[in-house]
Write a structure and sequence with these properties.
Elements lengths: L8 H10 L3 H9 L7 H11 L3 H5 L1
Helix pairs in contact: 1-2, 1-3
């Protein structure tokens, strides 16, 4: 379940909350990074207050 966000402040805020690089999120969203690490997925899921399963399904 990907929630598509427009590039800009939303991506930067999520990157900051998840403690990951903004570019990492953009690459995940665009499919350039098809295999993010489990650690990255955990950080993003925590920032979005969802489970990793919810994030990838």
């Amino acid at each position: 379940m990907w929630v598509r966000l427009p590039p800009g402040p939303h991506f930067r805020k999520l990157a900051r909350l998840a403690d990951v690089a903004n570019n990492t999120l953009i690459k995940m969203e665009t499919g350039e990074n098809k295999n993010p690490t489990l650690e990255t997925l955990k950080k993003v899921a925590k920032a979005l207050e969802v489970s990793v399963d919810d994030l990838i399904s």
